[in-house]
């Protein structure tokens, strides 16, 4: 059933569909930078002939446009106080009410700071120095090399995951800032089937190995 609900020892229980540690709550709401090596592609080149694979190769104006459209923190208006929800097997919530990340996530995510060519750029006449000439590079969360949790956000998020709660599964509420303060990164999960892009959006949030976040069972 895709990345919605499943129960196994891999910690892949609820999977609906990013950022160095920030110094303040305000800055965490502004962007989610990542520094993974971009994959080689047939991306369009800049006027100088340089291939663009990173959002930082765009001008500041075009970079802002791209991140406003693709960075989930900006696109969905998220902040450190934003609640996120996940239904998971109750064994993953420890006796102190804390939860660690899943090192084996199968989610597919958008790397919003890495550029891939927009397949419609040429036919639409988009210049290679324009943000609209690119889309985020797609990646498997497993390849990030860091544990993560699939969560839902938005007005309908709680309802979308609550239906998967049963005797051995619980619905949990977490605060996005608890991930960010521990060095977490936020990505859009485009493989989730539960998000509707309106009242409910799917995210993948990383949580470095050895870190846990507090959860509230709701």
UniProtKB/TrEMBL annotation:
Q: Where is this region: Disordered?
A: 1-53
Q: Polar residues compositional bias: what residue ranges? A: 19-34
InterPro entries for the chain: T3_effector_HopF2
Among SUPFAM superfamilies, the record links this protein to:
ADP-ribosylation
Q: Which Pfam families match?
A: AvrPphF-ORF-2
User: Which residue windows does the record flag with biased composition (Low complexity)?
Assistant: 1-18, 39-48
Can you name this protein? Type III effector
């Amino acid at each position: 059933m895709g990345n919605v609900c499943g129960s196994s020892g891999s910690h892949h229980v609820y999977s609906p569909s990013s950022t160095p540690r920030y110094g303040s709550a305000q800055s965490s709401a502004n962007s989610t930078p990542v520094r993974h090596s971009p994959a080689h592609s047939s991306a369009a080149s800049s006027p100088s002939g340089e291939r663009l694979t990173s959002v930082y190769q765009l001008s500041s104006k075009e970079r802002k446009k791209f991140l406003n459209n693709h960075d989930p923190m900006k696109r969905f208006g998220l902040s450190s106080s934003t609640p996120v929800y996940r239904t998971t097997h109750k064994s993953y919530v420890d006796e102190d009410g804390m939860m660690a990340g899943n090192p084996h996530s199968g989610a597919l995510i958008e790397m919003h700071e890495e550029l891939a060519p927009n397949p419609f750029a040429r036919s639409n006449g988009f210049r290679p120095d324009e943000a609209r000439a690119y889309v985020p590079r797609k990646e498997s969360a497993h390849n990030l090399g860091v544990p993560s949790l699939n969560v839902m956000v938005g007005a309908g998020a709680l309802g979308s995951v609550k239906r998967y709660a049963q005797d051995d599964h619980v619905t949990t509420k977490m605060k996005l800032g608890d991930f960010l303060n521990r060095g977490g990164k936020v990505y859009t999960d485009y493989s989730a089937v539960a998000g509707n892009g309106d009242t409910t959006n799917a995210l993948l949030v990383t949580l470095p190995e050895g870190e846990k976040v507090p959860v509230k069972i709701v």
